[in-house]
């Protein structure tokens, strides 16, 4: 990971040709296609263009900056063959609050790092208590009742 950071320091920022000159030409990289383009010809005076030589080390390529390998989680079954020393979890955005909360607790009890909890510990505790209070009874709250309960808090 240190090697990757060191290589990234020396990597130029690839800017689109003449994006500094015209407002209509935006900054993100686009390949130069002009017939006389110095960048396309790769002359010394042209803008540096991305190529294979600028890639990071193969061992850490695609890893999260924390050093863990990212794994997308949709259900509890996805955690079975994973190691908490090697993998970090990214929860699917399609998960609802109840299932997300259950998976977060399950993962943290087993020592996994969850990358996208998306809320502070206080908000997590509030959500947990709200879910417990609303789902303890067998009857489910109406949407209007739930909105009123949230407004009161």
Question: How would you summarize the topology of this molecule?
Answer:
Blueprint: H1 2-10, H2 38-41, E1 69-73, E2 87-91, H3 97-109, E3 113-114, H4 121-135, H5 143-152
Parallel strand pairs: 1-2, 2-3
Which structural traits does this protein have?
mainly alpha; 2 domains; 33% helix; elongated
Folded structure, characterized:
The radius of gyration is 24 Å and the shape is elongated. It has two domains: 1-61, no CATH class; 69-152, no CATH class. The protein contains five helices and three strands, in the order ααββαβαα. The model has no long low-confidence stretch (mean pLDDT 82). 7% of the residues are buried. It is mainly α and 153 residues long.
Summarize the structure.
This protein has 153 residues and is mainly α. The chain has helices spanning 2-10, 38-41, 97-109, 121-135, 143-152, and strands at residues 69-73, 87-91, 113-114. The chain is elongated, with a radius of gyration of 24 Å.
Q: Could you name the ranges where pLDDT drops below 50 across 5 or more consecutive residues?
A: none
Q: What is the N-to-C order of secondary-structure elements (H for helix, E for strand)?
A: HHEEHEHH
Annotation, overall tally of beta strands: 3
Helix/strand/pairing class, anyone? mainly alpha
Q: Give the overall shape.
A: elongated
End-to-end separation in angstroms reads: 44 Å
Beta-strand content estimate: 5-15%
Query: How large is the count of helical segments?
Result: 5
Strand order of the largest sheet: 1-2-3
Helical content stands at: 25-40%
Computed Rg = 24 Å
Q: Strand count, sense and closure of the main sheet?
A: 3 strands, parallel
Q: Calculate the mean pLDDT score and round it.
A: 82
Oligomer: single chain
């Amino acid at each position: 990971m240190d090697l990757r950071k060191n290589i990234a320091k020396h990597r130029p920022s690839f800017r689109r040709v003449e994006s500094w000159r015209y407002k209509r030409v935006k900054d993100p990289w686009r390949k130069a296609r002009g017939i006389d383009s110095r960048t396309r010809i790769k002359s010394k005076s042209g803008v540096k263009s991305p190529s294979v030589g600028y890639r990071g080390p193969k061992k850490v390529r695609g890893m999260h900056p924390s050093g863990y390998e990212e794994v997308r989680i949709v259900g509890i079954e996805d955690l079975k063959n994973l190691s908490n020393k090697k993998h970090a979890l990214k929860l699917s955005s399609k998960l609802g609050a109840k299932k997300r909360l259950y998976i977060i607790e399950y993962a943290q009890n087993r020592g996994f790092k969850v990358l996208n909890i998306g809320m502070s510990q206080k908000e997590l505790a509030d959500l947990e208590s709200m879910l417990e209070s609303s789902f303890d009874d067998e009857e489910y709250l109406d949407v209007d009742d739930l909105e009123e309960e949230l407004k009161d808090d």
